[in-house]
Amino acid sequence: MPFYDVIVVGGGHAGCEAAAAAANLGSKTLLITMDMTKYGQMSCNPAMGGIAKGQIVREIDALGGYSGIIADKTTIQFRMLNKSKGPAMWSPRSQNDRFRFTELWRDTLESIDNLDLWQDAVTKLIIENKTVTGVITKVGIEFRSKTVVLTNGTFLNGLMHIGSSKIKGGRIGEAASYNISEQLFDLGFKAGRLKTGTPVRIDGRTIDFSSLVEQKGDVGYYKFSYLPGTESKLEQKSCWITNTNIDVHDELKTGFEESPMFDGTIQSTGPRYCPSIESKLVTFSEKDSHQLFLEPEGEKTIEYYLNGFSSSLPWDVQYSGLRKIKGLENVKIFRPGYAIEYDYFEPTQLNHTLETKIIKNLFFAGQINGTTGYEEAGAQGLMAGINAHLNCQKPGEQFILKRNEAYIGVLIDDLVTKGVDEPYRMFTSRAEFRILLRQDNADLRLTENSYKLGLASVERLNLLIEKIRLIDDIIDFTRKFSVKQRFVNQLLVEKGTSELKQSVKLLDIILRPQISIFDLIEYITPFKTFLEKFPDNRRMEIIEGAEIIIKYEGYINREKLLAEKLDKFENINIENRFNYGELKSISTEARQKLEKIKPKTIGQAKRISGVSPSDINVLLIMLGR
Question: Which of 110, 179, 406, 524 is 20 to 30 A from 540 (CA-CA)?
Answer without folding.
Answer: 406
